Amino acid sequence: MNKLLIFSFLLFLSCNLAIQEKENYDVSEIKKAVDTTLNQWHKAAAEADFDTYFGLMDEQAVFVGTDSSEVWRKKEFMAFSKPYFDKGKAWNFQKINRNIYTDNNFPHVVWFDETLQTWMGICRGSGVMTQNNGQWKIRHYVLSLTVPNNKIQKVMEAIAGH
Question: Within the chain, which residues score under 50 in pLDDT?
């Protein structure tokens, strides 16, 4: 009986702490912090700052590039990217706009999409970020080319002819 009483008390306590955490959930502050982190990430690439760029990615991060073969775990992406950063020329993606989404049930996880001006033209980035020890990190990022609907047929023909 004592074990049941202790278990019930611990369950009550953990539920109460979860409710208190949700009450402290400030969407605007979270969105601001996530936006700042993504801006720092893109800036680090533009400045070829390898340590900052990869420091803003979670250790389990995955980066999905524009080519269908480009699905990299963080360490693989670091190895691929290092020569570009070492030359002082990584990539410079400028944010056009960004949407950040939250869920009250998961205050330490956000997802986002962004439109970027890049050397490839307009691209879309989307991803998931997680917060650990008060710091937001990129957990999953997908970069894709955008194709205007009125040009999709020509793009499809170019890909088929490749």
Answer: 9-11, 13, 15-22
DSSP string, the chain: -HHHHHHHHHHHHHHHHHHHHHHT--HHHHHHHHHHHHHHHHHHHHTT-HHHHHHTEEEEEEEE-SSTT-EEEHHHHHHHHHHHHHTT----PEEEEEEEE--TT-TTEEEEEEEEEETTEEEEEEEEEEEETTEEEEEEEEEEE---GGGHHHHHHHHHT-
133-149 confidence digits (pLDDT tens):
899 999 999 999 999 99
Chain CA centroid to CA 141, Å: 5
Spell out the CATH class of 27-160: alpha beta
* Residues 107 and 33 sit within 8 Å (Cβ to Cβ): no
CB 63 within 8 A of CB 77: yes
* Domain layout of the chain by residue ranges: 27-160
Cα-Cα-Cα-Cα dihedral sign, residues 84, 129, 73, 71: negative
The structure's pTM equals 0.81
The pLDDT value recorded for residue 2 is 60
